[in-house]
Amino acid sequence: MIILHGVSASPYVRKVITVLAMKQLPFEQKQQMPFARDAEFNKISPLGKIPALQDGDITLCDSTVICEYLEDTHPEINVYPTNHADKAKARWIEELAGSRVTELATGIFFQRFMRPMVFKQDPDEALVEKIIDKDLPPILDHLETLVPATDFLFGELQLADISLVSPFINASYANYTVDTQHWPQLSAFIDRVKTHPIMEPILEAEAKIMGFA
Amino acid sequence: MIILHGVSASPYVRKVITVLAMKQLPFEQKQQMPFARDAEFNKISPLGKIPALQDGDITLCDSTVICEYLEDTHPEINVYPTNHADKAKARWIEELAGSRVTELATGIFFQRFMRPMVFKQDPDEALVEKIIDKDLPPILDHLETLVPATDFLFGELQLADISLVSPFINASYANYTVDTQHWPQLSAFIDRVKTHPIMEPILEAEAKIMGFA
Question: Which chain A residues are closer than 8 Å to B35 by Cβ?
């Protein structure tokens, strides 16, 4: 049995949960917080990051490394394109989503959700406004040209779609949604991914853990 | 002909140059600086990062995405292990090297090399001391247990070895070397990679560009 370490609300853990669901692989989840001082967990994840995954004797960390491993070992249902050029494009979208997009979206999530709810502190609204008004727009402009008008990035739902939408799910917990007037195609794409039959039950289960349902 | 965009002294560009050499693929290099305000380059690299690569109509960025693409399209000479578990381990080492290890090693490089040489500023020695005395040791302790006593991580030289050593090459330009007393196995491993017949001519060419030879 595969063991997944990490809390469901992490944008990176959500990627792995969705890939496991798409590949119909049963797993047990341990709700591990990131950066916990936990010597046992650090043996699996030397930087303390989540997700980490155990598959028998094999331990892995980093969501991209885990998803590539699941694709290599369970190729019956693909979550990456199979042609080389599209696979490279999908990997780049996953990288862009996991770096700059996540940094900005989780910046909003951290200030407006984690600080008041978990740390009992006020959010830094000046920082949030800078993210929303200055930092995000050029990225959203780029994503608006990247996402398709219908369906998903490579036809069917795959990991690139999930990676790109995952940080916006965190931002939505902090009441941030992409402006439908400015970025109609991206906004519709995010809704399409969130309401896909694979994603919807995952987000419902997550909302319950977060206390929203 | 493959076109590689990026300056040779980048730890990420160096990975791609070495993989191209290992796979015996001819290429043309454009000495592109990162984060330059260059609309043409931003079409290839939306975040302005280096390296970026053009292979005919295909444009790619991010060193890991590029190396995976080169492995997929030119599998005759492998730079990743071919079994799934080792490939996952190699990808994790590349990720660890490209994130925390590079962050710390290039922190030293930026302060002690780039600031005085390029920006005509004094280095922030307090920051450098913090990196060397506090931040690096736990990572070096981990790497000391990870690297082998002889040969390379997966037998022959591969991308994981290059990724791990690349940031230390930048730190060496700032006169930082890993303490051979505290971390003898890592220190010997770094020397072994740097003097490998594939790496040596690349580092000599780079030293010329950097003005060291």
Answer: none
Structure tokens at B90: 């190699």
Torsion of CA B205, B69, A93, A212, to 10 degrees: -120
Instruction: Tell which of A22, A52, A73 closes a domain.
Output: A73
Q: Is the pLDDT of residue A118 over 90?
A: no
Mean pLDDT of B10-32: 97
Instruction: Mark whether A90 and A187 lie in a shared domain.
Output: yes
Number of domains in chain A: 2
Sheet holding B52-55, edge to edge: B27-30, B2-5, B52-55, B58-61
Q: Are residues A136 and A36 in the same domain?
A: no
Query: Residues B163-194: pLDDT tens digits?
Result: 999 999 999 999 999 999 999 999 999 999 99
Distances (CA, A) of B209 to A66, A189, B118: 38, 46, 14
A19, A35, A70, A95, best to mutate vs chain B, most B CBs in 10 Å: A95
Element (H, E) at B92: helix B84-96
Is pLDDT of B69 > 80? yes
Q: What is the pLDDT of residue B38?
A: 84
> Chain A interface, mutation test: which of B61, B92, B143, most A Cβ atoms within 10 Å?
B92
Residues A194 and A134 in one domain: yes
Q: How confident is the model at residue A4 (pLDDT cuts 50, 70, 90)?
A: very high
Give the domain range for residue A54.
Answer: 2-73
* Chain A nearest CA to B56, separation (Å): 11
Identify which of B73, B88, B89 has the shortest CB distance to residue A84: B73
User: Is residue A78 domain-resident?
Assistant: no
Q: Are residues A92 and A181 in the same domain?
A: yes
Contact A92 B142 (CB under 8 A): no
